[in-house]
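Researcher: We're teaching a course module on how sequence relates to structure. For the next exercise, students receive a sequence and then see the predicted structure as tokens, so they can try to spot secondary structure elements on their own. Here is the exercise chain.
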Amino acid sequence: MDLDSEVREIQQKYKIVGRFAELRKILIAYYSRKNILLEGEIGTSKTTLARAFTAYKDKTFIRVDGSEDVLSHVLTGYFDPPIVIEKGYVEDAFIFGPLSRSMSSGEVLFINELNRLPESTQNVLLSALDEGFLDIPKFKQIQSENGFLVITTINPRAHVGTTSLGEALKDRFVWVSLDYQNEDDEIEIVIQKLEDFLKTPKMELMEPETVKLISTIAVKITRLTRKHPNLRRGASIRAGIDLGTLMLTYYLNNGHSVEKEEFWYDAAEMALSTKIELEESSETSLKNVIHDCVRTILKDFQ
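Model: And here is the predicted structure for the students to work with:
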């Protein structure tokens, strides 16, 4: 099967909207036996693509979320003290960590926000990435099985609680960048999510035109936050999905016009307030910015 056919199969099988070029790069990296660093803003489908690729290759998705609590032994594994006391440093006493488990079984290790791991933990990855082995003191050297792959993510705007990636570590990855998708793709994503929502028990059927209208308005409001002068951080497609779902529920329970401002103000406050950030120098409120975005978009639909 050629690469383009594989990409289309992943898109169809796992409901991936767009991302053709990015999926193609991931496949190329995999067949080249290169570990992958996915860089993109929150909500740019980094985890979604990694999960879809892993499932497509019929591998186990072993996830680690980066934080200061993920110390070296958490990643590599450790000895269970009671068993060591009873039997000594035997294999039965060793609790495999995500890294040693994925290496020994040839699976995918997914590290979300690699730059949130302590530097000492990051350094543990070097030998595994470069030479395919991991030394466990008092135990053995674990060799990586065929198919072992590390996929990591970083958010370019995340600074608080992060550690700069060392040059030696970055050198062991190939880089795939993800930006926000185009408007049509984002509308299709929200439509897909709303249609899934409508399939849940006790939900009503709805005209496709209404679902598309709600999705379109939700995405346009979301995208406007990304270029609003009073915001330092706009919202990702997750906000569009939340906003569309809330508006769908409003509509199903009240039956008013989809374009009714009152409902959009309420739903937008609920969906966006936790996903956007004001500029420090801004003299307005988050609520005012959200209402401004809603008004600006709705005027084109009334």
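Model: If you want an answer key for the exercise: The mean pLDDT is 91. The longest strand covers residues 35-40.
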